[in-house]
């Protein structure tokens, strides 16, 4: 730990990718399904999810020294579906962060198709709960219906609106309003799970502290477009404020002029 110097990464825009899968430009198959009715597939999916859930309950405290603050705000919403928004800073951790924080509900994560190209784990991501963004616009209706179905089943939908993964980034990058139409469409609350980093004794990699905030409800007095914008603004400002609790840089990001 003595004389540790963080790695520096240079970016041109906030759209830069610092982590790419083995098949970054993968396309979904024509017959790709977001919701499976096959009872065998569903049973296997639950088993895989259960095994993963048990592993992360043990592994996360060891790997990340993880702490979760303010999670009591989730308690009144045990019996309904809702959305969570987080900053995208962990390769594997972000897939399982919501199941760890919202441990008593099944979580589904909206994911880029590129994640399916991750060696080994990419193949089972849909069984773990990845709701993959369609590469064909004609499939968008099926994708949206899958989100609706999971919310109606009282599950959690996790979204990383920054889209691009920047490992150990301690700020919050600007993000679009696009993904905020989902809570508006479903008229369900949203919460933030903001990941922050602190120095960890005897390790170069930092400790993780996640802050939960909310609920943020769509404002039904506004138009649907303005509801999404208001949600976006509230969530962005909350995450930005919580990110100030990061006190340690494992990787430093600088603008490449």
Structure, explained:
The chain has helices at residues 39-64, 93-101, 121-128, 140-152, 181-186, 224-242; strands at residues 7-11, 67-69, 82-86, 107-111, 130-132, 156-159, 190-200, 203-216, 251-255. It is of the alpha/beta class. The strands form two sheets. A seven-stranded mixed β-sheet has the order 2-8-7-3-6-4-5, with helices on both faces. Helix 1 (39-64) packs across helix 2 and helix 1 (39-64) crosses helix 3 (121-128). The mean pLDDT is 92.
The low-confidence parts are: none
Task: Based on Cα principal axes, name the global outline.
Answer: globular
Q: Which percent band covers the strand fraction?
A: 15-25%
Q: What is the percent of helical residues?
A: 25-40%
Largest sheet report: 7 strands, mixed
Q: Report mean pLDDT, rounded to a whole number.
A: 92
Number of strands: 9
Which oligomerization state do the chains in this entry correspond to?
single chain
Arrangement of strands in the largest sheet = 2-8-7-3-6-4-5
Structural class: alpha/beta
Give the termini separation: 31 Å
The helix count comes to: 6
Order of helices and strands: EHEEHEHEHEHEEHE
Radius of gyration: 18 Å
């Amino acid at each position: 730990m003595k004389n540790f110097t963080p790695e520096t990464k240079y970016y041109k825009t906030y759209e830069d990718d610092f982590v790419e899968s083995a098949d970054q430009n993968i396309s979904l198959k024509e017959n790709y399904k977001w919701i499976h009715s096959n009872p065998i597939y569903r049973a296997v999916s639950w088993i895989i999810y259960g095994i993963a859930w048990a592993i992360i309950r043990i592994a996360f405290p060891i790997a990340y020294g993880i702490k979760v603050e303010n999670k009591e705000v989730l308690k009144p919403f045990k019996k309904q579906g809702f959305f969570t928004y987080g900053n995208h800073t962990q390769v594997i951790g972000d897939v399982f962060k919501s199941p760890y924080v919202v441990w008593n509900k099944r979580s589904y994560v909206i994911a880029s198709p590129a994640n399916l190209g991750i060696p080994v784990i990419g193949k089972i991501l849909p069984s773990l709960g990845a709701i993959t963004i369609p590469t064909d616009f004609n499939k968008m209706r099926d994708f949206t219906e899958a989100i609706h179905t999971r919310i109606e089943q009282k599950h959690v939908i996790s979204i990383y609106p920054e889209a691009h993964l920047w490992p150990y980034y301690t700020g919050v990058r600007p993000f679009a309003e696009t993904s905020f139409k989902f809570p508006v469409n479903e008229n369900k609350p949203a919460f933030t799970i903001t990941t922050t980093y602190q120095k960890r004794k005897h390790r170069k990699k930092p400790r993780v502290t996640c802050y939960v905030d909310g609920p943020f409800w769509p404002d039904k007095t506004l138009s649907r477009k303005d509801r999404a914008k208001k949600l976006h603004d509230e969530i962005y400002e909350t995450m930005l404020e919580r990110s100030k609790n990061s006190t340690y840089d494992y990787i430093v990001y600088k603008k490449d002029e």
